[in-house]
Amino acid sequence: MPRVHFANGSSIRVPAESAQMTDVPERYTPEELQSDDMLRIVPNDYIQFPRGDPSESLLQLNNTSKQPVTFKIQTTSPEKFRVRPRCGLINPGETTTVNILLKAEHSLSDNARDKFLIMCLPAREISNAQVGEFWKKQNNNGPNVEQHRLCCIYKDAPLPTPSSQPMTTAIQKGAGEASPRSAPASSTCALERQLRFTQVLQVITLIFLLMLSGAVIYLLMLQLCGDAGCFSRDVASDTSEGAPCGKAKRDL
C-alpha cells in the first residue's frame, strides 16, 4: 500500500467517483511524518483560498530526499481548479511552487469536501519532458508511491470539526490493513444474553404449538367417536323396531 499523508483534522471521505483517492485512511497528523518522506508540503493541512476573483493559492513542494523526485497532483473536483504545474521533477533540496486557481464560476464545497492528492516517486533517469508519460505507466496506489492529501477551505471559514471517531494510523510501505477494533465486552455479553433469550422463546413457542396441535387432534377424535356412537344407536334402534314386524309375519 502507498504511504499516505492527510490534512490535520480532516474527517471527510473522498467521493466515490475519484477512484485514485480511495482505500486510504481518513485522517493523518503532521506528528506522524516519517523521516524518509520524499516531499515536504507547505501548507501541509489546508489549502486556503480568498473569496472573490481571482481566488488562488500556492503550494510549496520541497524535495527532502537525496535523489530526484517526480510528483503528480490530482483533485476530487477537476472542473473547479486550474493547477500549474500538475506534474514535474524536483531535484534534491529544491522547491517547486504550484499555483492553484479556483475558477470564477465555481465555489468551494462545504465541510472541506474539495481535496487535492499529491503523489511522488523517485525519479530514476527521467527528464521533465518524460514526466507525463512516466506517470501514465504508474499505479497510483503502488507500494512505492508517497501520497499527501490536503483539503480546500476559504481563508475566512472556520476549520472543519474533527471527527469524534478514533484517528486512523497512516499506512506505511508494505504494511497490511489495520485489524478492526474488537467489540466491547459488555456489548458481546448483551448479544449473548439476547441470543439465549431468543432460543428459549423459540423452544417455548414450539412446545405451545405441539400442545395446541394435540388438543385439536383430541377434539377431532372426540367428535368422530361421538358421531360413530350416534350412528350405532340409530342402527340398533332400527333393528329393534323391525323385529316385531318379522315375528308377526312368521305368525301369519
TrEMBL record:
Q: Where is this region: Disordered?
A: 1-22, 163-184
Q: What would be one Pfam family of this protein?
A: Motile_Sperm
Task: List where the protein spans the membrane.
Answer: 200-221
Membrane topology, as annotated, equals: Single-pass type IV membrane protein
Keywords assigned by UniProt, alphabetized:
Membrane, Transmembrane, Transmembrane helix
Query: To which species is this protein native?
Result: Glossina austeni
User: Which cellular compartments is it found in?
Assistant: Membrane
What protein is this chain from?
MSP domain-containing protein
- Name the Gene Ontology biological process terms: endoplasmic reticulum membrane organization; endoplasmic reticulum-plasma membrane tethering
**Ranges of residues in domain MSP:** 38-153
* Family label: Belongs to the VAMP-associated protein (VAP) (TC 9.B.17) family.
**Mind telling me which Gene3D superfamilies this protein's record contains?**
Immunoglobulins (2.60.40.10)
Q: Spell out the InterPro entries in the cross-references.
A: Ig-like_fold, MSP_dom, PapD-like_sf, VAP
Record GO cellular component, one term: endoplasmic reticulum membrane
